[in-house]
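Help needed: design a sequence for this.
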């Protein structure tokens, strides 16, 4: 039971690891002066409303920081045709034997399933005084 649970937990962990290592996203921050106004992931951060004032003044009090977290782009995905001939033969033989190996097993018949032992008239061990030590 614990082996099945550990197998499922390990499989889910590896799937999530592959998923999160390939996802790219951006974190955008908007500062007005030294005050953090908004932080946004996947979208644009909300502005503080000082854009009209920035047009009149030459210097800006607001700044935007954008941090891009890049995921992995190079995953090795190979098709069956790209494999060498020996590996193709091994893979085909393995899949064939795996599929057909378990289908031929039939249920074994138990011949003594309905057998009832004979009634004991005498207890021979007690009668002969023979006991296992």
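Sure. Designed sequence:
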């Amino acid at each position: 039971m614990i082996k099945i649970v550990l197998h499922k937990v390990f499989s889910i962990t590896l799937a999530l690891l592959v998923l999160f290592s390939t996802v790219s996203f951006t974190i955008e921050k908007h500062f007005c002066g030294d005050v953090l106004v908004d932080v946004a992931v996947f979208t644009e951060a909300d502005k503080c409303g000082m854009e009209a004032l920035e047009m009149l003044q030459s210097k800006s009090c607001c700044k935007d920081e954008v941090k891009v977290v890049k995921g992995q782009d190079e995953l090795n995905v190979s098709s069956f045709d790209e494999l060498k001939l020996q590996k193709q033969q091994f893979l085909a033989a393995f899949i064939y034997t795996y599929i057909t190996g378990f289908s031929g097993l039939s249920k074994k018949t138990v011949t003594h399933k309905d057998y009832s032992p004979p009634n004991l008239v005498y207890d021979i061990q007690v009668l002969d005084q023979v006991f296992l030590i």
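The chain is about 35% helix and 15% strand.
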